[in-house]
Specification:
CATH architecture of the largest domain in chain B: Orthogonal Bundle
Number of strands of chain B: 2
Subcellular location (chain B): Cell membrane
Main location (chain B): membrane
Largest sheet of chain A: none
Strand order of the largest sheet of chain B: 1-2
CATH superfamily of the largest domain in chain B: MetI-like
Order of helices and strands of chain A: HHHHHHHHHHHHHHH
Shape of chain A: globular
GO biological process, one term (chain B): transmembrane transport
Strand content of chain A: under 5%
Membrane topology (chain B): Multi-pass membrane protein
CATH topology of the largest domain in chain B: MetI-like fold
Oligomer: heterodimer
Largest sheet of chain B: 2 strands, antiparallel
CATH superfamily of one domain in chain A: MetI-like
Structural class of chain B: mainly alpha
Number of domains of chain B: 2
Largest interface: A-B, 120 and 127 residues
Number of helices of chain B: 16
Keywords (chain B): Cell membrane, Membrane, Sugar transport, Transmembrane, Transmembrane helix, Transport
CATH topology of one domain in chain A: MetI-like fold
Radius of gyration of chain A: 24 Å
Amino acid sequence: MTVTSTDPTELVDPPAPTAGRRHRDPRRGTPVGSAVAYVCLGLATILFLIPFYLIVRNALSTDIDITGPTWKFFPTDIQWKNFGELFTDPSVNILQSLRNSAVIAVLQTAGQLLLSSLAGYGLARIPYKHATKIFYAILVTLMIPPAVTFIPSFIIVSQLRWVDTLQGIIVPTLFSGFTTFLFRQYFLSFPKELEEAARVDGLGWMGAYWRVVVPNSGAFFAAIAVITFIASWNAFLWPLVIGQDSSMWTVQVALSTFLTAQTINLHELFLAAAVSIAPLVLVFVFLQRYLVQGVAETGIKG
Amino acid sequence: MATSTVDAPAVPARPASSARRRRGGRISGVTGAFWLFVGPFLIGLLVFVYLPIVWSVVLSFNRAQNTVTPSAFIGLQNYIDLLKPGPFLDSLITFTIFAAFIVPVTFALSIGLALLLNRIRFARAFFRSVFFLPTACSYVVASLVWKLSIFNGVRFGLANTVLSWFGVPNVAWLATTSPPLYWIVIVSARLWLQVGFYMILFLAGLQRISPELYEAAEVDGAKRGWQTFRFVTFPQLRATSVAVLLLLLIAAYQAFDEFFNLLGNASFARPPLVYLYYTAQGDQDYGHGSAGAVILALLIMIVTLAQGRIFGFGKAAE
């Protein structure tokens, strides 16, 4: 499977049926079947959107509207002042947890891209005699999902005295065998002629990599970046284990704590949830093309 | 193909590599360049992946309460404790029940949505976006909505509100253990979050099926609908289906977030990672925690190797 075969545009716009073809595309079936399909999809759409509706409704309601004896489909009055309440509530400190999440997600994404793309390129292209053995040593780590070894990782972080630090949350997540594997597979299918021309022109391996390979791999880097950023922003177990002090909470850990302890108002909690998904909805709206490609890439190969 | 893929970097086969050799004395250049590219990653992998696993294996043979330094060797005692009937084995049973629900249901719904999307012409991008949108949400956010708004046990929860329109009294969704209604909450939350992801994988698989196969099937007299699906579509999706099943199983094995946030440390539904979390972070018992991590890692390695996927990787990618 090559990169082009999962080009997201194929998912959006399937090849148009050949003009003048007499038969209907057999995949599509009868008009009645299509009507049934639309009804099913419509019902599924309602079910899939209900949670988003509830988040927005509760975030902009008063607690009385949320918990009242009769169901309110929409708030009696939209409570824009809930924003002010959330961001100034000293017991919540949502801004700090948003900042932690942003720092962690950005650094983790950038670090993984840098380390894994370099390693993947070296493994794919540089004819070092032990390269295959080293590649197998990386492949073996793919068998164990990182979450399963959170206790071993915690032990190392605690020996480094990195518990309750941002580097304790970030650094151990930078070395992903899986991302390296994906980059290696990608670079194997990268046209060799381009780099060879660059190296003949006197650029070394690094020069060819930075001047020719990276600038021509934007879509693949973007796809991996989007996937990594979302996974990092939504990560819970690892930040929970390492960032124990409230100053180190990510937005997920903060939400979880408020959910379990139920120390804040319902509308504040739902508004915090809405704020926590807002960055990802933006990523989703503007970078969906890369996201879909990333899922198709990482999912099938993983 | 697998071997040639894996060996590709080591085999100098093209004129370019002889050109490289002509430029003279580049062997050390090759070694140096390789380590410049791969070295930083490899050092990190050793320190943050290999070293922790070795450390934990050693620690798992020690009594390690409130400490992570191996100091009191007790042989296999930690493993024996865990494998006796008790909470750890219960957690594996919980995982098995969970997987028996979530794997087939997610599989069926995601392939179903993909097939529906594949047969319509209009608004396809819209529907795909809707089903994919929950991927942007975290398990924590989903747990919050499920616990406080949809399956809240009091009357203002959405599920209880709808039931009350039909005169059904309030249901305590998360606290009811017989029948185990909490599974509805747990499974539906994960379905909402991950169906869109697997739907995209199936869509990609469907797009790769050549239209000629359908034309040939039609010429051969296959009826549209079930026969076409049974003899063309499903066999062509075999690789995707196997991959999705394995991914779903591995994901269920690592379930933590929604169990932790919806049920906490409830003894009736505690998957392996939740049990280990409370063993290590709650009881500070790193000996048993390490032994549990080793057992879980071994189990998943056996499943993965049995699947033959790791060493099929090179093949799948070409």
